[in-house]
Amino acid sequence: MMPAMDARLPPLDTDAAYRVLQTRDARFDGRLFVGVTSTRIYCRPVCRVRLPKQENCRFFGNAASAEQQGYRPCLRCRPEQAPGLSLMDSSQALASRAALLLGQAAHDGLDPTLPTLAARLGVTDRHLRRIFNQVHGVSPLAYLSTQRLLLAKQLLTDTRLPVTEVALAAGYASLRRFNAAFADNYRMSPSALRKGQPDETVREPVLRLAWRPPYDLDGVLAFFAKRAVPGVEAVEGLTLRRTLALRWRGQPLAGWLGLRFVPERCEVAMTVSASLLPALGGLLARVRQALDLDADPAQIEPVLADIGAGRCAPGVRLLGGLDGFEIATRVILGQQVTVAAARTLTLRLVQRFGEPVATPWAGLDRLFPSAEAIAAATPEAIGTLGIVRQRVGALRALAAEVAAGRIALHRAAPLQATLDALRALPGIGDWSAQLIAMRALAWPDAWPATDIAVLNALREHTGGQRDAALAAAHAERWRPWRAYAVMKLWQTQEEMPTLLTPLPLRLTSSPPHLNP
What we know:
Strand 9 and strand 10 (267-272) form a beta hairpin. By secondary structure, this protein is α+β, with helices and mostly antiparallel strands. The chain has 22 helices and ten strands. Helix content is 41%, strand content 10%.
């Protein structure tokens, strides 16, 4: 008897899937799950338990499909730690977008209805249900249920949050509904999952998040180290530490987190302050985006194979941040200046408008300024920091829109509407909007056409000219991963001080669009 294969799994026959299981190939982590009929448990392909017989294996393309068939998650390999979907995982953009919005809702503890979700995507709920089931093999509500339960399982295992708070963080309206859903799907109560764990309160839980190799860890650490703002963030060895302020269900929270890379396990170990625990679900999603842990190099690397051969390590990542407004602010301050100069301006802004915060590490003691704080600041107060008038106007206009909720800068925000809203603001042109979409919205096909480092890197393909139109034409071959191409092209120009600046008008024979 041959093992069953889920029809929506990316092209792998069952023998190939079993070989992935035999070799514990981490490249398929999060894209392949195996249910074992003798135990009714499903695992990641990297699980270290004894290899099951092939005839007892059932393979699935996502965790929701496995749980729909009655399998419960392995307590050892913990499917909730696996890399998730990237923005381009599905050939059906609508289903991919819906899955992204559902995952965001689960991590933010929200409870979207199918009609609300369909309206946000501009389709009928019937059409959304049909396309979603066709692509992912389960209904949208079943997918959301799995995301919530896996999030709850991770919080129950890795933290000592009370079960009531876990239920709330995972998006359940009541403890009774949470207990019932957990028991129905996992055949145990939430408290039973914690049996045998220490009873004392763990103030600083360690949560583990996996990535698919290869992962350009040196490039990731170098990128963040070069842009680290003293007082807010620091890179030391394999560890990234920073402060963070966010809002959870309307309440402001402030604290810190540490991210330690564990390359031998393809994992990030995350430590977080007790003050941020209520928003832990949303914070996990932010970290996954900031470090691009859900990327699938098997899709990306072949498309970008002609970039930086011999100079760029495989596994490039589209690096973002933990707060969209912070990313956008840094982009504005980086207009037509060097990375070092932009960091200096950002440091002044932090020292003037950032609130103090306590952390376990000397030198990390400031929060990045909130949109509300910048919107309330006078132009004179910002201008005294050495920021030119156009940048001051752009910062205040952006801050006002974000503070009022008219512009959302996160992965689930509508792409085109957000780009249009950004370009409509004074002092924000296409270069800035593209970079914000690239790093805050995680848009994998963003293309900052007038970026000087990109144009310099492509001069051999544009007749020796720094020509934005010719460069854009050459970049068509890299769709839908042009933002990853930008990250690689930046790496090839690391010796240049102007790594993140738009191109000055005098440097091009075919003048590109410039920010004011």
